[in-house]
């Protein structure tokens, strides 16, 4: 013992304050090393993307005064903290001479700093942190919360509108029209009916209905999923290829649908229940049944009737209004009726309809086509309206709604001043034409549009696949799989296997995609479906583990309560576990999709093309993606690509990632607050 | 779920309910089976083409050959993995020099020194490092890091080089080291720390003398996982390291002792296994040729290496874990 005691003393006895302090600072330095390095790199890439190094000081000054100062003022007003105001003003005011002085000194005596001016250094080391901190402080008070909440709805709504737009680039609106009218609408009707009449067999047919609807929505000239009707379509040059597919899918669908419809009608007549639900169900079923038989009849025996009338389909605008605006307005109004009152619901419905329908028609004045405008207006107006109603109800910080006006006004006034002053704005790489043009051999003309569309398409597909597979597996492992015996062993093997899959390099998944999906199964090289399946398998382990954690967090007492009420395992999962866990599942799912959107190596391995000029118009077409385009451009020798276009692409990709992660964090925070 | 429930018959035996229960249960079983099938499919795909590669090209030459040239203009095809292994090891070791110390120190700081608030800020920011797409890191290395290094430390550096790429790989895997190590350190019970303080130790001595040894299994397993991640990293090296699969020249130093100058390796182009795979796929995608099959052989090599490292890391974490 004595010897050991001595030993301990030599180890622990020598108290050295300096050593401890140095170590603490060193480890703090290590923690922020990577973060700082990334921050510097991000500053450089933002400067390159917006070409800020060529921005004139006058240009920067104008927007600083019209945009940044009002924003900081708003946040300070919201924070309502004299100390913070003093600090912010001191930092902004004192930082300017300090940075300028240091920079000029460094430039004069040591060496010039490439690619940066003191204005930019001031911008990134003082203005951005101060703005971020003030914004954070302001957002915690009611006024700021309202302002940022509204801004978030507007930005998020616009992003959603853009997503709608891109989805309709890929999936043809007319196919969606069919899918909605003959697929989703009756399917939802069946679902509603089966909810009212839980014992009805109709609910079993809900899933096939939806599957058929999605078949309709996918580009329908695909040999995998349609049965071709042997007919001569040559007299219809444009519409022939998709109508052919549509009709065969319609036939399948209606055949599936008519069986439950007939059963429902039979039951409704047999039981002669006079309840309202039964009547509604009966009428619904009758409608579906009649539609089905007519549809089958027409499609099977007289397809010319549909084919020759193809020109009478509503235009894209009409399709959007019928299949998106009306149902979403109804849903929004219905939600309002449940939460607030019927009167508010009517108001909501009328306002949304008015804004989207009239607003989109009015958009032609500023040169935006109504069919584009209707998507954006719809995506923005619904969340904004519900948020505004909440604000008006709370009566707290209502003044915050001026924030978007303040910022929009700042941009407009800034533009006017710059124009009058005669300041040449910098040639920004990340501009509107970059986002909407295709690739080009000239860096200045090159655009990111096909890559954005491709990425959105890939991510949408991956989201669907990985949600189904990930949640299905997680539910199986957490709720169904046995823990003991032989089954328990299998469960453990599954679990270990998932952990190992997570560590497989992404390039190996690329080989899997190349060998299995592209070559063996014949989905084709570089097609969207090959890419989506590969990426799905790649992120599957992450999404499974996150979904498992969310499901595990549901307390067992809730499950037992459900079982005690006599619910089956599936009913418990569906009615208790999944609703409780859904927010956690969604958070994890979005984060894992963030991984998928940045992956490049698997896409190279499955043969994504170096550049395509038009966005893909279906899942079986070759496509490209944002990271792929970045890779291609960064290997170009032209400096315009390497420094300009790629920087703009990188910033676009990072902004998309940021938006996704912000969504995930918002969902998580809301979940935590509720819990 | 729990045992008592599995004894109960929760699948009720009435018509539609039973169908529904069976359908949904079966569907979920299929979902779970997909994960297992993925592993089988990876193994099958890789093995299938590797076997045809081995039939065409002697495996000994593959594993010991000093030259890699899958697509020479009219020349003979050579598939020696050694230069690629060399490049991979260079990147892995250099990035480990960055990631392991920084990651460990970060973990110590987060678990021992940082206040709750600092940790709440630092941890998500570190996660951002792991969330940045790797192609973006590669772009950073090529366009910002290399010119910066050329302007300051190494004027003779080539545009594509191993050093910048390894730096970025290192930064990318920092969060992997730090988060797993921190979990291990946080799992060390406070009694051990209190005992250290009771013996008169300072915070530094407790951190390095008690917490780190007690959590060493977790730290080592995080190292192995980080290294395995660095081995499989593709886009950073593809974009920033170039594609020159040659071994560096061996110089003669004092007393004619042969040595390899680090500058010849780090400041010049190089090629890793992953880069070789990407280069082959740029030329041939349809299959049936030797380079195509060689790509799958490389993939199998990579797959087995990372799998073994993963298993070792698991074993270390399990076997040497201190149970408190």
Task: Characterise this structure.
Chain A: InterPro entries: MetI-like (IPR000515), MetI-like_sf (IPR035906), Phosphate_PstA (IPR005672). Chain A: Pfam families: BPD_transp_1 (PF00528). Chain A: It is found in: Cell membrane. Chain A: Belongs to the binding-protein-dependent transport system permease family. CysTW subfamily. With 675 residues, chain A is mainly α. In chain A, α6 packs antiparallel against α14 and α21 (556-564) runs antiparallel to α22. The longest helix of chain A has 36 residues, at 639-674. Chain A is 77% helix and 0% strand. With 324 residues, chain B is mostly helical. Chain B has a single domain (82-319), classed as MetI-like fold (Orthogonal Bundle). Chain B has helices at residues 3-7, 15-56, 59-64, 82-113, 116-131, 134-152, 162-186, 190-198, 203-214, 216-232, 235-240, 262-266, 273-283, 290-319, and strands spanning 68-69, 78-79, 251-252, 258-259. In chain B, α4 packs across α10. The model of chain B is unreliable at 1-7 (pLDDT under 50). Classes of the chains: A mainly alpha (675), B mainly alpha (324). At the A-B interface, α1, α2, α17, α18 and α19 of A face α1, α2, α4, α5 and α6 of B.
Strand order of the largest sheet of chain B: 1-2
How many distinct beta strands of chain B? 4
Oligomer: heterodimer
N-end to C-end Cα span of chain A: 53 Å
Helix-strand pattern of chain B, N to C?
HHHEEHHHHHHHHEEHHH
* Backbone shape of chain B: globular
| pLDDT averaged over residues of chain A | 77
CATH architecture of chain B: Orthogonal Bundle
Strand composition percent of chain B: under 5%
The CATH architecture designation of the largest domain in chain A is Orthogonal Bundle
* DSSP strand tally of chain A: 0
The parts of chain A where pLDDT drops under 50 for at least 5 residues are 1-13, 219-248, 302-312
- Class based on secondary structure composition and strand pairing of chain A: mainly alpha
Alpha carbon gap, first and last residue of chain B: 27 Å
Radius of gyration of chain A over all CA atoms, rounded: 30 Å
InterPro entries (chain A): MetI-like, MetI-like_sf, Phosphate_PstA
Keywords (chain A): Cell membrane, Membrane, Transmembrane, Transmembrane helix, Transport
Main location (chain A): membrane
Organism (chain A): Halovenus rubra
């Amino acid at each position: 013992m004595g010897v050991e005691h001595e030993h301990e003393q030599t180890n622990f006895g020598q108290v050295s304050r300096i050593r401890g302090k140095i170590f603490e600072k060193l480890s703090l330095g290590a923690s922020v090393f990577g973060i700082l390095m990334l921050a510097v790199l991000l500053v450089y890439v933002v400067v390159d993307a917006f070409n800020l190094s060529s921005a004139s000081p006058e240009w920067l000054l104008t927007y600083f005064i019209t945009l940044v100062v009002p924003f900081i003022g708003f946040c300070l007003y919201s924070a309502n903290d004299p100390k913070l105001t003093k600090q912010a003003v001191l930092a902004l005011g004192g930082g300017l001479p300090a940075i300028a002085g240091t920079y000029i000194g460094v430039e004069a005596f040591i060496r010039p700093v490439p690619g940066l001016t003191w204005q930019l250094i001031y911008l990134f080391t003082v203005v951005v942190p101060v703005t971020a901190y003030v914004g954070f402080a302001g957002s915690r008070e009611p006024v700021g919360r309202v302002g940022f909440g509204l801004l978030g709805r507007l930005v998020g709504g616009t992003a959603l509108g853009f997503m709608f737009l891109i989805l309709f680039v890929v999936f043809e609106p007319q196919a969606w029209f069919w899918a909605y009218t003959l697929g989703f609408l009756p399917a939802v009707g069946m679902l509603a009916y089966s909810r009212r009449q839980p014992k009805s067999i109709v609910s079993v047919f809900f899933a096939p209905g939806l599957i058929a609807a999605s078949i309709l929505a996918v580009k329908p000239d695909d040999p995998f999923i349609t049965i071709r009707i042997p007919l001569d379509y040559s007299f219809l040059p444009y519409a022939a290829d998709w109508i052919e597919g549509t009709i065969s899918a319609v036939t399948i669908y209606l055949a599936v649908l008519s069986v439950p419809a007939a059963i429902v009608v039979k039951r409704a007549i047999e039981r002669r229940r006079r309840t309202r639900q039964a009547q509604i169900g009966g009428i619904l079923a009758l409608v579906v049944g009649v539609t089905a038989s007519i549809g089958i009849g027409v499609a099977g025996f007289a397809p010319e009737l549909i084919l020759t009338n193809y020109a009478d389909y509503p235009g894209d605008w009409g399709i959007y209004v019928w299949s998106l605006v009306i149902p979403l307005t109804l849903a929004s109004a219905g939600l309002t009726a449940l939460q607030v009152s019927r009167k508010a619901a009517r108001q909501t419905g009328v306002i949304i309809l008015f804004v989207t329908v009239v607003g989109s028609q009015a958009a032609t004045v500023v040169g935006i086509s109504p069919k584009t405008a209707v998507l954006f207006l719809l995506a923005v107006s619904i969340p904004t309206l519900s948020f505004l109603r909440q604000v008006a109800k709370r009566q707290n910080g209502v003044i915050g709604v001026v924030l978007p006006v303040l910022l929009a006004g700042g941009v407009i006034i800034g533009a006017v001043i710059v124009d009058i002053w005669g300041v040449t704005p910098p040639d920004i790489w990340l501009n509107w034409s970059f986002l909407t043009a295709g690739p080009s051999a000239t860096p200045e003309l090159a655009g990111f549009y096909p890559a954005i569309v491709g990425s959105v398409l890939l991510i949408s597909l991956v989201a669907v696949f990985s949600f189904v597979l990930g949640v299905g597996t997680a539910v199986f492992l957490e709720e169904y799989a046995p823990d003991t015996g032989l089954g328990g062993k299998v469960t453990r093997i599954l679990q270990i296997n998932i952990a190992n899959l997570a560590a497989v390099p992404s390039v190996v998944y690329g080989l899997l995609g190349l060998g299995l999906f592209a070559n063996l199964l014949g989905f084709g090289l570089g097609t969207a479906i090959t890419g989506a399946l590969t990426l799905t398998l790649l992120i599957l382990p992450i999404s499974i583990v996150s979904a498992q954690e969310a499901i595990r967090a549901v307390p067992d007492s809730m499950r037992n309560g459900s079982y005690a009420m006599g619910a089956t395992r599936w009913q418990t999962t569906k009615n208790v576990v999944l609703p409780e866990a859904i927010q956690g599942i969604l958070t994890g799912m979005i984060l894992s999709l963030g991984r998928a959107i940045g992956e490049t190596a698997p896409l190279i391995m499955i043969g994504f093309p170096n550049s395509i000029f038009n966005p893909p118009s279906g899942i079986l077409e070759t496509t490209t993606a944002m990271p792929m385009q970045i890779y291609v451009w960064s290997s170009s020798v032209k400096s315009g690509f390497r420094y300009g276009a790629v920087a703009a692409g990188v910033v676009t990709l990072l902004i998309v990632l940021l938006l996704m992660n912000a969504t995930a964090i918002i969902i998580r925070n809301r979940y935590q607050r509720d819990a | 779920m729990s045992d008592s429930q599995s004894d109960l018959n929760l699948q009720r035996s009435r018509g539609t309910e039973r169908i529904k229960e069976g359908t949904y249960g079966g569907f979920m079983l299929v979902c779970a089976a997909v994960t297992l099938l993925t592993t089988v499919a990876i193994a099958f795909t890789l093995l299938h083409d590797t076997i045809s590669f081995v039939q065409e090209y002697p495996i000994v030459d593959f594993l010991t050959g000093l030259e890699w040239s899958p697509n020479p203009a009219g020349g003979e095809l050579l598939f020696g993995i050694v230069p690629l292994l060399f490049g991979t090891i260079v990147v892995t070791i250099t990035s480990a020099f960055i990631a392991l110390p920084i990651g460990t120190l970060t973990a110590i700081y987060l678990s021992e020194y940082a206040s709750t608030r600092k940790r709440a800020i630092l941890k998500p920011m570190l996660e951002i490092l792991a969330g940045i797409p790797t192609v973006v890191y590669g772009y950073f290395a090529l366009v910002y890091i290399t010119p910066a290094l050329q302007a300051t430390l190494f004027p003779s550096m080539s545009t594509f080089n191993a050093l910048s790429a390894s730096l970025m790989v290192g930064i990318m895997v920092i969060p992997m080291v730090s988060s797993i190590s921190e979990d291990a350190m946080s799992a060390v019970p406070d009694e051990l720390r209190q005992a250290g303080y009771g013996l008169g130790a300072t915070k530094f001595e407790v951190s390095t003398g008690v917490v780190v040894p007690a959590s060493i299994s977790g730290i080592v397993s995080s190292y192995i996982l980080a290294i395995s991640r660095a081995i499989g990293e593709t886009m950073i090296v593809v974009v920033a390291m170039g594609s020159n699969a040659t071994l560096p020249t061996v110089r003669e130093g004092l007393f004619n002792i042969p040595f390899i100058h680090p500058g010849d390796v780090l400041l010049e182009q190089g090629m890793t296994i992953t880069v070789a795979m990407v280069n082959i796929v740029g030329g041939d995608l349809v299959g049936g040729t030797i380079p195509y099959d060689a790509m799958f052989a490389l993939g199998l090599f990579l797959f087995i290496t990372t799998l073994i490292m993963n298993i070792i890391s698991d074993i270390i974490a399990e076997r040497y874990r201190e149970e408190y």
